[in-house]
Write a structure and sequence with these properties.
By secondary structure, the protein is an alpha+beta fold.
Length: about 170
């Protein structure tokens, strides 16, 4: 009987040492899932932008600005399957669409060929510049999780960039 109690205490001590490993692995899985989702959302937006013609309206910088920006939100909708309120919606906080899980900001800057001579893109051309002077567009997608990061799943923004030549 005493041997069984000693064996039970030893197993209890060993199992208590394993509990932090399981909680850490759960946290890592949740963080990895968030990173995978944000990467996929960002890549999808970049791939769509790359497929567009160079002078497409969504890649246009407004006149007088050096950056064209659009903000979209991924809303969860209700928990039922096939909810039409789930998906990307224009705006930072759309009303009546459910819980906002992700916010995606897409920025477009345009440059002339002379700007890459020094190896840095630091002189963005203003919107309204004649098209013959615009040779390169930088498309930047930033994703932010609107979920509050806790000790297991810290919220981290993700930024992806691509250059689209004329």
């Amino acid at each position: 009987m005493i041997e069984a109690l000693v064996a039970a205490v030893i197993l209890l001590i060993i199992s208590l040492g394993l509990i932090p490993l399981f909680s850490r692995s759960i946290g890592n899985n949740l963080t990895g899932n968030d990173a995978l989702q944000s990467t996929n959302f960002g890549r999808a937006e970049l791939e769509q932008a790359i497929q567009l013609p160079f002078n497409n309206q969504s890649l246009t910088v407004p006149a007088g600005n050096t950056v064209g920006s659009t903000i979209e939100s991924w809303t969860q909708g209700s928990t039922s399957v096939g909810d039409d309120k789930e998906g990307w919606t224009a705006g930072a906080s759309p009303s009546g669409r459910g819980t906002v899980l992700w916010t995606r900001t897409t920025r477009v800057r345009q440059y002339g060929i002379s700007d890459i001579q020094d190896g840095r893109l630091d002189n963005a051309l203003a919107g309204g510049t004649q098209p013959i002077f615009v040779h390169l567009k930088e498309i930047e997608v930033q994703l932010d999780s609107d979920r509050q990061g806790g000790p297991l799943t810290p919220a981290r923004p993700l930024t992806l960039r691509v250059l689209k030549p004329f």
